[in-house]
Amino acid sequence: MIAHCLIRLIKQHYQDLEISGVLTRRPLNSFSDFPLTDRLTNSIDQLIDGADLIVECSGDVFHGTEVVERAFEVGLPVVTINAELQVTTGSYLAGKGFITEAEGDQPGSLAALHEEALMMGFKPLVYGNMKGYLNHDPSLEDMTYWSKRQGISIDQTTSFTDGTKVQIEQVIVGNGLGATITKRGLEGLASTNLTDTGNLLGMMAERLGQPFVDYIIPSGYPAGGVFLVCGHDESQQAAIEYFKLGSGPYYTLVRPFHLCSLEVGKTIRRVLNGGGVLLNNSTAPTLGVGAIAKRAMRAGELIERGIGGFQFRGEALKLDQNPDHVPIGLLRKTALKRAVEPGQLITFDDVDLLPSRALDIVMQQRAERAATVTQKPEASLQSVGRVAVGG
């Protein structure tokens, strides 16, 4: 859906840009309604040939990593709509080439709101996502129904419903914008009034002593946007109250929509015009997304997929407190080595993972983090143009 909508947008509203290629893993003769069938290819080399920029929107950690690395080999910048990739291999990739998440999905929309807030003198304290519905363990029957109704895949529908996607989204925001979390899995407060909830979150940030990421579940008002809870100079308090943003000291800035593919063009233009990274997972992340078992499972049980599956859901966590966790993005066609219980955080000792480039990257980064901790002194340890679309 993202690729279809983005291509139609570029064709109809960006007359100075051209779609030079569209990568697919499906047979080329299997498309009946694609807007540019003559640009479809199964070859990464053909995708990047003649392109000035790659848009990676597959939602696939393994395939996406391969595409991004190949683009970097020829010096192309990459815009992603793939938070799953960002929180799994994105920090490694950020050190190898230009990669940025696009505006439109919640992380990019929060990053754009962050930039606007800073230009107005606000000090972000909380980066907030909104979630309309949450069920940690939805049924296959329900997910099949909603998948057909909404026109998206069952695994995407499941990852949205069980909370995995919002955890992933907030982790990339935290890593990219220098924020933390208050606890594993985030707070996820119920909210009937965003201003009141924003004031509570602002007080929590002040007590914590640093900005944090989280999400809310609104009731009585729409849940389609993102928000920041901010502070500002005391000397501006009267003016801000006059501007109808409240009496302070906390101010909630709301972006009431995120339009996914319709906004990606803004980031494409940003990059092609020489602008910097909007958001990526940073080269020194502090947060990750672990896999939490939804039910009891026996040794030898096959894991078809982690993200969007019915065996696990994702939770945000601190990397230094969970060094052995398996990033949920790595769970694909693998087997359990031992039984697990509901609510258990999966570690590398629990699973046999298939070899992949993504796994190599994660293991390299894991080893580097361990070496950094080992090397710290004892005192430190005791302190606190033409666009190609890859679908």
What does this 3D model show about the protein?
With 391 residues, the protein is α/β, with parallel strands linked by helices. It has three domains: 1-104, 3-Layer(aba) Sandwich (Rossmann fold), CATH 3.40.50.720; 106-257, no CATH class; 287-370, Antifreeze-like/N-acetylneuraminic acid synthase C-terminal domain (Type Iii Antifreeze Protein Isoform Hplc 12), CATH 3.90.1210.10. 37% of the residues lie in helices and 20% in strands. It contains 13 helices and 16 strands. It has helices at residues 2-13, 44-48, 61-73, 83-94, 106-119, 140-150, 154-161, 164-177, 194-208, 237-242, 261-272, 357-375, 378-382; strands at 18-23, 40-41, 53-56, 78-80, 99-101, 123-130, 189-191, 212-218, 226-231, 251-255, 287-293, 302-305, 312-318, 332-336, 351-352, 386-390. α4 runs parallel beside α8 (164-177). The longest helix is centred in the C-terminal third of the chain and has 19 residues, at 357-375. The protein is globular, with a radius of gyration of 21 Å.
Overall number of domains = 3
The strands making up the biggest β-sheet line up spatially as 2-1-16-3-4-5
How would you sum up the global shape?
globular
Q: Describe the largest sheet.
A: 6 strands, parallel
Order of helices and strands: HEEHEHEHEHEHHHEHEEHEHEEEEEHHE
Task: Tell me roughly what share of residues is in helical segments.
Answer: 25-40%
| Count of distinct strands | 16
Please tell me the overall pLDDT.
94
Structural class: alpha/beta
Radius of gyration: 21 Å
Strand residues, percent = 15-25%
Distance between the termini: 10 Å
User: Total helix count?
Assistant: 13
